Amino acid sequence: MSEPLLDVRGVTQKFGGLVANSDVSMQARKGEILGLIGPNGAGKSTLFNAIAGVCKPTRGRVFLAGADVTELGAPQRCALGIARTFQVVKSFETMQVVENVMVGAFVRTSSAREARAKAADVLDLVGLRTRANAMAGDLTPPEMRRLEVARALATEPKLLLLDEAMTGLTPTEAQQGVELVRRLRDSGIAIVMVEHVMEIVMPLADRVVVLDLGRVIAEGPPAEIVRDERVISAYLGERRRARRA
Amino acid sequence: MTAQAVAQSLVSGLLMGLIYALVAAGLALVFGLMNVVNFAHGEFLMTAMYAAFGLFVAVSLDPLLAAPFVAAAMFIFGSVVYLGVVRFAMSASANAGMVQIFATFGLGVVMRGLAQLLFTPNYRSIPHSWLGGRTMQIAGVYLPAPQLAGACVSLATFGALWLIINRTDFGRALEATREDSGAVALVGIDRKRIFALGWGLGAALVGLAGAVLAIFFYIYPDVGASFSLIAYVTVALGGFGSVFGAFAAGILVGLVEAGSALVLPASLKYVGVYALYLLVVLVRPRGLFGSL
Amino acid sequence: MTSDPHIKARRENIFVAIGVVFVVACLPLFVTDVYVQNVLVLTLMYAALSQSWNILSGFCGQISLGHALYFGTGAYVTELLFTKFGVAPWFGMPAGGLVAAVIAAAVGYPCFRLKGHYFVIATIVIAEAGYLLMLNWDYAGAAQGIDIPVRADSWAKFQFLRSKLPYFYFALGFAFVAWLVTYMIEESRWSYWWRAAKDNADAAESLGVDVFRSKMAAAALSAFLTAVGGGFYAQFVSYIDPESVMGFQFSLLMALPAVLGGLGTLWGPAVGAGILIPLTELTRSFAGGSGKGLDLIIYGLLVMGIALGRPEGIVGAVTKRARKGRP
Questions:
Q1: Given Cys at both, which of A148, B190, C52, C311 links A85, Cβ 3.0 to 4.6 Å?
Q2: For domain B3-283, which architecture applies?
Q3: ipTM score of the complex?
C-alpha cells in the first residue's frame, strides 16, 4: 500500500496532570474515510487539535505526506493541506457567508476575484448558494455546520478533519452530508471524522479507530469494531457511568 | 542614598500603595462581576472628592467623618449609572465592547464638564482638618497622618470586603454571578439587581477613597485623570476582576512608584510603574492573580 | 463581469469618492473665513487619521486608545529632522511614518497576545509612557517642545504664513489617500484575514490565517498613516510639545469618527469626521470660552449618545437596512 497521507506517531498530550492522549498512533490514506470514535472524554478533540496544529503534543510526531509537521502552527498546516471543522461552530459572524468561505480560499490565491469564484463553487457543493449574501450570524445551526465544511473545503485540503459535522442535522440533512463526504473521498481527499452518531459513521467509514481514556483500544473495519469486546465494554462503561451520574 | 531615605520611600510607597488599592478596588469589583471597565472611574473619584469638599464647606464636617456619607451617596450614584447607562451599553446590538468603553468614557467627560460648571476649574483644598498637615515620626521616618489614615481605611475596607464577599448572601450571589451570570438566573438570583448593587458597591469604595484623598490632595475637575490610569494599571496588574489581586497590585504600584522616584527624575516615576505593568502583563497576560 | 453586483458597488464607491473630493476641493471658492477653513483642514485630517485607526481597530478589531503615540511620533520625527538637520517635511513625514510603524510592531509584538480590555489598557499605558518620556527628553525640547521657525511661504519646506489653502489641499489629498488605501485593502486578502481574526481567531488560524502576522501588518500600516498625519499637523500648527501632539485626547479624536460613522466600514471614518469635528469645534468656540465646561458636557453627551444610540455606526446602520430590504 502507498505511504499514508497522515501519520500520527506516538502522540501524547498532557495538560498539567491530565493525560488527554497517551501514545496514540494512527494513519489515514488518500481517498479513505477514517472514523474516530470513543466515549466522551476519550481524547478525540485533543487528537484533532494535535493534528490540526492547535497545540503541540507533549511527545510524538505528526507527519503529512511524509513530512514532519509537528513543529508547524495551524496556519502553516492549513497551507500544507490540513483543514478542519469545529465541534462548536466558529463562524465569522459579522461577515457574509460567501466572505466566510473566501477566507479559506485566500490560502491558495491572493486574488479576491478568484477567491470569490472558488467560494461560489464550494457553496454550490454544500448547498448554501442561496444563502451566500446572508450574514453568517443569521444562519440556522445546520446551515452553520455546512458553512464550516464549505470554509474548510475552500482551502483545497488533502486531509479534512470533521469534528461532529453531522450533529444536530435532520435525517435528510444528514443523508446529504453523508453523500457529500463520499463524494469528497472519491475526489481523493483523506477524511478523518469524529462522530457520535454510530448510525452515520459506521456505514460511512472505511476504517475506524477507537479511543478510550486517551489510548487507541481498537482499529479496523467497522464490521469488526462493532463486535470488539474492548469497544463494547468501553461504551457500556460510559453508559453505566452516565446512569450513575 | 542612605538607608533612611530608602526606608522613608518604602514606607511612603506602602501607604500610597494602600490608597491606590482602595481607589482600584471598585474598578476591579465591577470588572470581575460583569466584564465591564468603567472608563469614568477617575471621574467617580473626582465626584467623591467634591462631595467630601462640599460637606466640609456646608457643614464643616471633617473628611474622615464624611467618608461614610460620601460612600453612601456614591453607592446610590453608582447604581443609578448602571441602571441609566451601563445596562443599555451591555445590551448593545453591535460592537458591545466598544460601546461600553465609549459610553462610560462619555459619561466621564460629562461629569468633568458638570464639575467645571458647578465648581469652576479652580483648584480647591480642604484647608483645615484633623489630620491635614500632621506627621508622625518613627525612627527618623516621617509618616504623614492623612496618608496613614488612608492606608488604615484601605486595610479596614479590604477586610470588610473580604467579609462581605465570603460571609454574606450578597457576597455569595456576587461570586455566583461573576462565575456564571447565565446560570444564576436559573437559581433565582436577579442578575440585573446584583449588577446594580455591584456598581453601587464599587462606587461606594471609590467614595471612601475620594473622601480620604480629599484630606491631602487638591480637588479639581480633572483630578480623576491623575488616578484613573494608575487604577487601570493596578487592576490589570492584579488580574482584572480580582479584588484582592488589586489589593496586592496597589501596594506593588505604590512601592515601585516610590522606588522609581528614588532613582529617576520625579516626573518619570510613573514610567517605572508602567514598565513594571508591561513586564508583568507580558509574562502573565491576565495579571498576577488573574485566572487563565 | 460588470453584472456582478459586488464589483458594481465597488466601482460606484470610487466614483462617489472622486465626486466628494471634487466638491470638497471647490469649497475654498466659497469659504474664505479663516476660522472655517481651519475647521475644514482639521476635519479632513481627522477623517484621514480615523481612517488609519479604523484599519487596526475597525477591520482588525484591536481597539487602540493609544494612537496619540504614533501621531506624536510623526510630529516629532518630522520636526526634529526639520529643525535639527534641515530635512524637508516631505521626507520627514514618511520617515516619521516608518519610525511609527516600527514602534507599532514593537508594541504589537507583546501586546497582541492580550485580549479585550487588557489590550485597550495596554495601548493607553504605552502611549502615556511615551508622553512622559517626551516630557523629559531634553534634546526634543522636553516640556517646552519645538517651535518651528516659519519665515516665508515655501512648498519646499511645506510651510505657509499667509494662506491656509496649501494645508487644506494637502489634508484633502491625505484624506483621499487614506480612503484609497482602505478601499484597496477592503478587497484584498488582508482585510478578509483581519475581519476573520477579529470575529474568531481560532477559526481563522485553521483556515491558514496567520493571525499574529495579520495584526502586526494592520498595526504597522495604521501607525504609518497616523504618523504622516502627525507630521502634517506639526507643520500646520508650527509648534509642538508633548501635550499638544501626544495627549490622550488625540487617541480619542481619532477613534470617535470611525465609531460614529461605523467601525470597520469604508465610509464610516469620513462620514463620522464630517459630522463630529465641525460639531466639536463649534461647541468649543461657542461654549468653551466660558470656562464653564458646557463644551465638555455637550461633547460627553455626544460620545455617549453615539455609543449607545448607534452601536453599528451611521454607515453600518444604513447598510444593515439596505440588506434587510433585499430578499
A1: A148
A2: Orthogonal Bundle (1.10)
A3: 0.89
